[in-house]
Every structure is written in C-alpha cells, then in structure tokens.
UniProtKB/TrEMBL annotation:
Signal peptide: none annotated. Keywords: Membrane, Transmembrane, Transmembrane helix. Residues 64-275 form the ABC transmembrane type-1 domain. The chain crosses the membrane at residues 60-84, 121-144, 196-215, 221-242, 286-306, 318-340. It is found in: Membrane. It holds the Pfam family ABC_membrane. It comes from Hirsutella rhossiliensis. SUPFAM superfamilies: ABC transporter transmembrane region (SSF90123). This is ABC transporter transmembrane domain-containing protein.
Length: 341
C-alpha cells in the first residue's frame, strides 16, 4: 500500500518523465561531444596503424628504440643552452673583475677561469656527439619502422585484390588500382617514419625547456609563454590548407591517371614545370612570414625585459637576474616553441 501511494504521489507531482532541465544535454553539447569523440577516434586510429597486419618483434623493436632515442635527443640541446649561459656569466664576471681592478686579473684567477671554460667546452663537444648518435639512431629506427609498415600494407592490399571477383575490376577506371596504393601508402609511410621521431624530440625539448626556464627566471618565462598560443593558433590555419589541398591533389592525380595513363603518368612533373603559375607568391609565404614575425617579436620583447631585469640586478649589487640566465631562457624558449611549431 505504501509503495502504491508513493508511486501515485510521484506521478501526480512530477509527471511520468519529468527531469530537471539542467540535466538534459543540449544540442550544442551533443555536437561538442561528437566532435571530441571523432578526434579521439582519429588519434587512436593513428597509433593503431603501427600494429596493423600482425607485426613481428622486428617490427616493434625499432619503434620502441625510436621512441626512447627520440625523447632523449631533445635534452642535449637544452643542456647546451644552459652551458652557454654559464659561459656568458663566467665571462661577464671576469670582465667586471678586470674593469674594477686597476692591475687586471690575478694570474691564479685567470688560470681558474681558463680551466672552467675548457671544461665546459669539452662538455659541449661531448653533448654534440651524444646528440648526433641519438638523432642518427632515432631517424634510422623510425625510417625502418615506417618502411616495414608500408611493406605490410602493400602485401595486405595485394591479398585483398586477389580475393576480389573479376567483376570488381570492371567498375574501376584504368590505372586506379595501381595509382591509389602508390600514393596512399607513400603518404602513410611519410607520416609514420622520421617525422614521428622529430615530433617526439621537439615535444621533449619543449617540455624540458619550459621547466628549466621557470626555474631559471620565472618572470621572463611567464612572459614568453605567450609564444605557445600564438604559434598554436598559426599552425592549425596553415595545417588546414596543407591537408585540404594535399587531399585534393591526390584525388586529382588519381583521376587524371585513370583518364590518360600514358600521357598523364607524370602529372607532378608537369605541375612543377608551370602548372602552378596562378599561385600568388604573397600567399605562399604568409605562414612563414607570420612564424618569423612572432619569433622576432618575442625576441625583442624578451631582450627588452631581460635588460631591465639585469639593470635592476646591478642596482641591487648583483642580486637577481644574470646575463647568462636571461640568455638561456630566451634561447631555449624561443627555439623550443619554434621547433615544436
């Protein structure tokens, strides 16, 4: 009886299906959720392509080594920036001591300074050798992994073609079977080879650079963090044009090859000999011009603020920012954001 009374009360007060309006998702929320889900599937689909077609240990081992060496190769350049900053500080200190003293530097101090400089130069040489080895192994592993992935996809494509009925090829234009896999697999290989290692190396350098910069000079690093949204706003715009027109060009090449395979088999060559005369030179270099404008503008702002910090430190008898720390922050942050872009 109590249960029936409770049900009747709920039906009369709230209705059979009445919920608060705040709990009902709106149309915009549905659209946003669909976009996020689509991007997530696209991202996961990119990483899933590496394990397509039953990869062996020889296929996975280069990828694992490539990931480790790519991340490690982004660190030596950061250490080079720190060492250069320390060298600048040492030179500045010895110069100030020589100017302050009427007799110049003490020979003992000169020998100590020379030994310090020689030691840091040796560190720079060692770091350069280590970075060369890491980058070489990184590029070799990712190139090998991309080549083996492309070979597996070609074999799977051939097996799929052999399993088709003869009538399947009657509906395809001439040259479509040969031109499509060549262009598509080459695109997959280009996107899964050394570019992935470069991206991982740049990302590792970017994260470690901002960490060190905030430790060295948090105020200047906070100013230069504005480079991140500036570059990331520019990159999707240029990337959208590149992706859109590259896809259109691939479709046009396949269609033209099917119309006249013999005469149009080298469409890219014909294009390079004058088909692009209609493109405006100004529109071709907008992206590069904007990129360097942001970099040089950030350099100007950083050097201006850095000079003010150094002047304040001189007034406080050396308590504060140094020339080397300012140089290190500017060098690693501007380069890190530019490389990541």
């Amino acid at each position: 009886m109590a249960t029936e009374i409770h049900r009747s009360t709920v039906k009369t007060c709230c209705g059979p299906a009445s919920y608060p309006s705040k709990l009902v998702p709106t149309r915009s929320q549905h659209v946003l959720g669909a976009r996020v889900l689509k991007r997530l599937k696209k991202l996961l689909g990119y990483f899933a392509i590496y394990v397509r077609e039953k990869p062996t240990r020889l296929d996975i081992a280069p990828l694992v080594i490539g990931i480790i060496t790519a991340i490690a190769s982004g660190v030596p350049f950061l250490l080079l920036g720190i060492l250069f900053g320390q060298l600048i500080d040492d030179s500045n200190d010895r110069t100030c001591e020589a100017v302050a003293s009427s007799r110049g530097l003490n020979p003992v101090i000169q020998d100590s300074y020379q030994a310090t400089v020689n030691g840091k130069i040796l560190y720079i040489v060692y770091l350069a050798i280590v970075q060369f080895v890491l980058i070489y192994v990184d590029l070799v592993c990712w190139s090998l992994g991309g080549a083996r992935l492309a070979q597996r996809l070609r074999e799977q494509y051939l097996r799929s073609l052999l399993q088709q009925e003869p009538s399947f090829f009657d509906h395809l234009p001439a040259g479509e079977v040969a031109s499509r896999p060549s262009g598509d697999i080459q695109t997959i290989r280009a996107g899964t080879s050394d570019k992935v290692g470069i991206c991982l190396s740049s990302l590792a350098f970017f994260l470690t650079s901002y960490t060190v910069a905030f430790v060295k000079n948090s105020k200047l690093a906070g100013i230069l963090i504005l480079l991140v949204p500036a570059y990331f706003f520019m990159s999707p715009v240029g990337g959208w044009f590149i992706e859109t027109y590259s896809s259109r060009a691939s479709d046009r090449f396949a269609a033209s090859s099917s119309i006249a395979p013999e005469s149009l088999s080298n469409v890219p060559v014909v294009h390079s000999f004058g088909a692009n005369k209609g493109l405006k030179p100004a529109s071709q270099h907008i992206c590069a011009g904007l990129m360097y404008f942001i970099a040089y503008g950030a350099n100007a702002l950083a050097f201006w603020q850095g000079s003010r910090m150094i002047a304040d430190a001189v007034e406080r008898n050396g308590q504060g920012a140094t020339v080397g720390s300012i140089f290190t922050v500017i060098c690693i942050l501007v380069d890190a954001t530019l490389i990541l872009n």
